[in-house]
Design the sequence.
C-alpha cells in the first residue's frame, strides 16, 4: 500500500488558490499521484486508497473502489494530451 502524498499549498487568497488548481503542472502532478495510487489499489485489491492530504487545508482525498474507473478515465485524457503513452496503455489495461 502506498502512503498518501502530503501536499502543502501556499496561497494568498481564494483567487490564487483557484489559479493553482487550474495550473497544468499542478494538474499533471496530481494526476500522476492518482494514477500510481489507483493502480496499486487495483493490483492489491483494495477497497479504498488514500491518495493525498493537503496538510495546511486539512483536506484528505480518498477514492473508493467504485470510483477507480472514473478517476482513471479522467487521468487517461490528461495523459493522452501529455503524450504519456506508456501510462495510457497501462490505464487501458486497468480499465478492462
Sequence:
Amino acid at each position: 500500500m502506498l502512503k498518501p502524498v502530503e501536499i502543502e499549498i501556499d496561497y494568498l487568497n481564494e483567487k490564487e488558490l483557484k489559479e493553482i488548481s487550474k495550473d497544468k503542472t499542478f494538474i499533471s502532478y496530481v494526476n500522476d499521484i492518482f494514477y500510481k495510487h489507483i493502480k496499486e489499489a487495483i493490483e492489491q485489491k483494495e477497497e479504498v486508497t488514500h491518495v493525498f492530504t493537503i496538510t495546511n487545508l486539512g483536506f484528505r482525498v480518498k477514492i473508493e473502489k467504485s470510483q477507480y474507473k472514473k478517476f482513471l478515465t479522467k487521468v487517461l485524457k490528461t495523459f493522452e494530451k501529455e503524450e504519456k503513452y506508456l501510462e495510457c496503455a497501462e490505464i487501458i489495461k486497468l480499465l478492462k
Notes: The radius of gyration is 14 Å. The mean pLDDT is 95.
